[in-house]
Write a structure and sequence with these properties.
By secondary structure, the protein is an alpha+beta fold. The protein has one domain: Gyrase A, domain 2, CATH 3.30.1360.170. It has 8 helices and 6 strands, in the order E-E-H-H-E-H-E-E-H-H-E-H-H-H.
Amino acid sequence: MKFVEQQVELLNHLDYKEMLNNIEMAGRICYQSKSDYSVESGEKFVRMIIKRGHESVLEHGSLTFKIKTNRAIANEIVRHRLASYSQESTRYVKYDDIEFILREGKPSDLFNAMNILKQIEEQYKAFIENGYRPEDARDILPLCTATTLAMTMNLRELRHFLKLRLDKAAHPQIRELSEKVLEIAKKEFPVFVEDINE
């Protein structure tokens, strides 16, 4: 049994200039306008379309993230239908050392929770040792069981995801995860999220 933290990693993507060029080339078709397709021109164009609310142009660019979270938060993430997901399967993966992600400060009796999770892990392993398939043994795994997924979102949906999931009304764990996504996006693709705050 291990307790791990949520993680976010940017997987494959175009570099910043290529992403800007793709967005700008697609968007300029709407206006039949010309450009030198520099970083400065692309940033100016993206700011203009965001200001005008013409964010459909941002759908011509996407990012793929590798996310480690618990199954409860993964259930919230995959509700964003305008994205593509590939998630670790508890049906096929047999766990030797189960990882759990708990919300900090919850539950208040963390020692008791750790004992319960240890019992669950021991029972899961007993099921496997007695010939149960992972797809049957998984029935006892709690929502705090860690999972990994790949998430690909176009830039318009990424902005929507961040606006919803960074809101103070969002669950604290998905807010924490969204802050990690925003931090990466601001570092690698700043103009697309510069108006979004934590």
